[in-house]
Amino acid sequence: MPSFIELALRPERRKPAPEPVPVSLRPVFLVGIGMWLVALVVALVLWLTGAVGPHGTVTCAVGAALGGLGLVWTRRHTGR
Length: 80
Hints:
- The protein has three helices and no strands.
- It is mainly alpha-helical.
- The protein has one domain.
- α2 (26-48) runs antiparallel to α3.
- The mean pLDDT is 89.
């Protein structure tokens, strides 16, 4: 097995890099959106009961919207 110094001096002796594994991010975004929507319901109930301010509700809505943008992005970049 060649040493690190030898591989640094002669990079042509290295093994070729493996091909990247194709991964679908759609399920990740869907789970994230679902979690943001559950948090939105909880934050909305807490806001309407007067326990907290509207900041949590806005944060959850923005999180779900960004997840929606992520879904649009995955649809446009599936073949790469």
